[in-house]
Design a protein that fits this description.
- The protein is α+β, with helices and mostly antiparallel strands.
- It is built from five helices and three strands.
- 55% of the residues lie in helices and 15% in strands.
- It has a three-stranded mixed β-sheet, with no helix packed on it.
């Protein structure tokens, strides 16, 4: 083997932006990193906390599929076409949104 072809490895302490440090092998004398396992969201566990809004997600799911249960029940009870039930529910939803919109507009004018 030729001499002086490979760089020398040193055991150095890598320091993170957050202040954490750990030992690694490197050809460099000083190693600084932007993120480490102590401050990375996946390893630190902060992503789980951020995504744990389950109450809001459950309410959103129930709200989204509330009309589906109504449609199925009405189709079963009245033996009508699905398109008629959907159109009727759309009218109710539109009327509800417009009444909500008029209440908001009324509050802003006051």
């Amino acid at each position: 083997m030729k001499k002086k072809t490979h760089p020398q490895n040193h055991e150095v302490v890598a320091t993170c932006h957050c202040g954490g440090s750990f030992k690694i092998m490197s050809t460099l004398k000083d190693v600084r990193v932007d993120i480490c396992s102590a401050c990375h969201p996946v390893f630190a566990g902060s992503t789980g906390k951020r995504l744990m809004d389950t109450e809001g997600l459950v309410d959103k799911f129930k709200k989204r599929y509330a009309n589906t249960a109504k449609i199925q029940a009405e189709i079963k009870d009245r033996k009508v076409k699905k398109a008629e039930v959907v159109a009727e529910l759309a009218k109710e939803e539109k009327a509800r949104k417009e009444s909500k919109k008029s209440r908001v507009i009324g509050k802003t004018k006051v």
